[in-house]
Amino acid sequence: MRQAKSAGEEGGYTAFAGPRCIASGGLEAVALKVKAWVDGGETVPVVIYEDATGLPVHPDLRGTREDVLRGLEARRARAAASSEDTEEPRRSGPGRPKLGVISREVSLLPRHWEWLNAQPSGASAALRKLVENEMRGGQGRERARKSQEAAGRFMLAVAGDLPGFEEASRAFYARNPERFDELTQPWPRDVREHVRRLVAIVIRDEAEVTRATP
Fold first, then answer.
1. Which contacts (CB < 8 Å, 24+ apart) does range 116-120 have?
2. Is 114 a residue whose pLDDT tops 90?
3. pTM of the full structure
4. The predicted structure's pLDDT at residue 29
5. Which of 37, 64, 126, 176 fits 171 for a cystine, CB–CB 3.0-4.6 Å?
6. What DSSP string describes the chain?
């Protein structure tokens, strides 16, 4: 499989007209290329996929280039506003506000308190360290899960009717790269290369989780 690119090089969005990739990059650049494709009279339907999720996105391509960019900016503003609305409100009360520390009751068994109190840094610092370590591991596992879902969604959407899809899908979930490459080799080049790139990202993310696990 092709080596996974770093997070900053993963493109973001990819547009396919049938089995042909016509654009890849940031959403603005991809949307404008798709608009030029459609305005140029091409009749093959185009779908833009978000690489991080494998889901299609549907920007409004009507009007001028400026209209398209304004629509994308408004879309981004709505998404940001929605994200802010779902954030947990700030809590006030005991703790150290300047550090963002919040004091809450924690229920543990006596042996847990004994272990925490024996830590050189104290119970609170030891708990924070345990939580931070678990958060890092959890974030890595969540990233690997999402990249697997993205690869699976895209593969089903674009290659679901291609020969060998079911066997290739089984090889993907079994993490059998040699078999996967063999089964996807007959697929159209652009589909094959993009699927392999997404699968390589899955393998990279899973390897990072393995390295981070004590």
1. none
2. no
3. 0.70
4. 95
5. 176
6. -PPPPPGGGS-SEEEEETTEEEEEESHHHHHHHHHHHHHTT--S-EEEEETTT--EE-----S-HHHHHHHHHHHHHHHHHHHHHHSPPP--SSS-GGGT---------HHHHHHHHTSTT-HHHHHHHHHHHHHHHHHHHHHHHHHHHHHHHHHHHHHTTSTTHHHHHHHHHTT-HHHHHHHHTTS-HHHHHHHHHHHHHHHHHHHHHHHH--
